Amino acid sequence: QIGVTMIYVTHDQVEALTFADKVVVMYDGTVVQVGTPVELFNQPKHTFVGYFIGSPGMNILPCTIDQGQPVFHGNLLRTSYPASSDVSGKLEVGIRPEFVTFADDGIPVVIEKVEDLGRYQVVTVRHESAVIKVVVKEEQPIPSESPRIQFDPEHTRIYCDDWVVEGAGHE
User: Fold this and answer.
1) Where are the beta strands (DSSP E) in 36-156?
2) Is the per-residue pLDDT at 150 higher than 90?
3) What are φ and ψ of residue 4, in 5° steps?
4) CA–CA distance, 76 with 150 (Å, rounded to integer)
5) What is the CATH number of domain 55-164?
6) Which residues are CB-contacts of 74 (< 8 A; sequence separation ≥ 6)?
7) How far apart are CA 83 and CA 81, in angstroms?
């Protein structure tokens, strides 16, 4: 620490997250979030932040709301951060690939591609028209028959018109 404030402008998220104590993320000429790299990754306030920060970026999927919980293509998901019943606009659910898991029950998917990156694999799956990324650790098996996925409720967020819905229990 040298006690000097510096502004470093880059389009490279790796550079920004490596060098910065605080990051300002702009989208379409507007500041959409200011935070530490960990805050941007764990608590994206805007869908652009969720998709831009992380590799692969956050899965952003269309949804509706039923009793505060997101419904994706007829599948009720769970979130620890439910939406109020009066939320309206373009609704989406966001979940990072690290928090999507293969499970015995859940949303049925078709595996389209497996990218082996050494310590983990990025599995691209499809449910109807939606493409979803799943990060699988090297020791975890990838199902070969009738794969299904689940979203971790603690990391599932609801967005309305690209902004996170500040429901009960939000940070």
Assistant:
1) 59-62, 64-66, 69-72, 75-76, 91-95, 100-108, 110-116, 120-127, 130-137, 148-151
2) yes
3) -125, 135
4) 11
5) 2.40.50.140
6) none
7) 7
Half-sphere exposure of 90 (CA within 13 A, CB side): 8
pLDDT in tens, 51-105: 999 999 999 999 999 999 999 999 999 999 889 878 889 999 999 999 999 999 9
Distance CA(161)–CA(163), nearest Å, equals 6
| Residue spans per domain, the chain | 1-54, 55-164
Task: Spell out a b/e string for 150-169, using b for 16 or more CB atoms within 10 Å of the CB, else e.
Answer: bbeeebbbbbbebebbebee
**pTM, whole model, 2 decimals?**
0.88
3-state secondary structure of 119: coil
* Nearest in space to 106 (alpha carbons), one of 152, 75, 142: 75
DSSP 53: S
Cα–Cα distance measured from residue 140 to residue 149, given in angstroms and rounded to the nearest whole number: 14
pLDDT of residue 167: 66
Tokens in use for 120? 């983990």
Q: How many CB atoms are located within 10 Å of the residue 2 CB?
A: 4
